[in-house]
Write a structure and sequence with these properties.
Number of strands of chain B: 0
Largest sheet of chain A: none
Number of helices of chain B: 3
Helix content of chain B: over 70%
Number of domains of chain A: 2
Number of domains of chain B: 1
Order of helices and strands of chain A: HHHHHHH
Largest interface: A-B, 92 and 72 residues
Shape of chain B: elongated
Oligomer: heterodimer
Number of helices of chain A: 7
CATH class of chain B: Mainly Alpha
Largest sheet of chain B: none
Order of helices and strands of chain B: HHH
Radius of gyration of chain A: 21 Å
Chain lengths: ~170, ~100
């Protein structure tokens, strides 16, 4: 429980850093801290395999992709929000909606009480138990994700082809 | 209070605020990733509460979809930047510009 509070506070602090940092690279670094704190939360919830995957896939692969795009887009184009917003009251409205989302969901969390659930059996969340569930009960959704990844690869390649080769191809 | 669920709720609210107040599409996208992660956290805490492995498997599948989404989303952002040479979501307000 203590682990949950500490890692939770770190995750929320890093999350606030993501949206408040002026520099996009700082936002990305805060997001990595956020992912690592969430991985610690996963450990506290006996999801060891998911904690590893979180660090490797999210904090590793996805954030490298983000930082790569930040580099490509050369972020020194002036600070965010430099131009006047065409939509008045955007910031205030965003904060109000965020507070509403938080209050409504937090009411549900408070109503649910503090219990984490029954004691965890030894094998729960281990790679063996996770793998058994993934490859027996959930094998069809698992195979479907392979197709999703294929679609993503084809989509990303066809989106970012150079503009010259684009015309006759489509 | 359950700290895991509370963290999940706070991250979702922070992500909402981030998408709405920031105008850099990359930071908006990072906020979306944060909201995605908060949903994963809720899945894992309920999976632990009911001692059901299914929630964890679903997070694994959602993570795969997140990877696909990031690849496509960043591709679109790079493409828009290549056409318009600016990264401000409010300035990109016309189709076929």
């Amino acid at each position: 429980m203590i682990l949950g509070w500490i890692a939770g506070i770190m995750a929320v602090a890093a999350g606030a850093g993501v949206i408040l940092a002026r520099n996009t690279v700082h936002s990305a670094l805060f997001l990595i801290a956020n992912f690592i704190a969430v991985a610690v939360l996963f450990l506290g919830l006996h999801a060891e395999f998911l904690a590893l995957i979180e660090v490797i896939v999210y904090a590793g692969a996805i954030m490298v992709l983000f930082l790569f795009v930040v580099t490509v887009l050369s972020v020194d184009k002036g600070p965010d929000n430099a131009l006047p917003s065409p939509l008045g009251g955007q910031t205030a409205g965003g904060f109000i909606l965020g507070i509403v989302v938080f209050v409504v969901l937090a009411l549900g969390v408070v109503g649910a009480g503090g219990a984490l659930g029954p004691a965890v059996p030894a094998a729960f969340g281990s790679v063996a138990a996770f793998g058994r569930a993934l490859f027996t009960t959930y094998v069809y959704p698992f195979e479907l994700t392979a197709f999703i990844l294929l679609v993503a690869v084809v989509g990303a390649v066809s989106l970012t082809r150079s503009l010259k080769t684009r015309g006759d191809g489509n | 209070m359950n700290p895991y669920l509370l963290t999940s709720v706070l991250l979702l609210a922070l992500g909402t605020v981030g998408v709405l107040i920031r105008r850099n599409p990359l930071v908006m996208f990072m906020s979306i990733e944060m909201m995605w992660n908060s949903a994963n956290l809720a899945f894992v805490s309920f999976s632990r509460h009911w001692l059901s492995q299914g929630g964890q498997v679903f997070v694994f599948l959602a993570l795969t979809v997140a990877a696909a989404e990031v690849a496509i989303g960043l591709g679109i952002i790079v493409l828009v930047f290549r056409y318009r040479h600016q990264i401000d979501a409010d300035q990109i307000n016309s189709l076929k510009g």
